[in-house]
UniProtKB/TrEMBL annotation:
GO terms for cellular component: cytosolic large ribosomal subunit. InterPro entries: Ribosomal_uL22 (IPR001063), Ribosomal_uL22_bac/chlpt-type (IPR005727), Ribosomal_uL22_bac/org-type (IPR047867), Ribosomal_uL22_CS (IPR018260), Ribosomal_uL22_sf (IPR036394). The keyword Electron transport does not apply. One of its GO terms (molecular function) is rRNA binding. This is Large ribosomal subunit protein uL22. It comes from Prosthecomicrobium pneumaticum.
Amino acid sequence: MSKPKTERALKDTEARAVARMLRVSPQKLNLVAALIRGKKASAALADLTFSRKRIAKDVKKALESAIANAENNHDLDVDSLVVAEAHVGKALVLKRWTPRARGRVGRIQKPFSHLTIVVREVQETA
């Protein structure tokens, strides 16, 4: 009496990893995600390693997780992986307040983001 197994959302040549609740605005995270979209996984890892953005470390961690999922869970070849998708979503926003002049208050927003990375195995045509 268990519920039926859901169909796999991705193709057989794809694997994904999701990093949730990253403490950065979606706009800033999307700049780093755009840096790796469409690149080979090894080149994307190299770019993230030497990126000066603070959030690049967390993006690299998510990409390494997607690569590990592809290798261990789906038996894909690591050397032929490409970052097929890297999309960013909004999460919650913490609202904080700071005092301003003349008894007023200033609103400070501390946004969080979600990151989804999908890697795909491609066949080199030579």
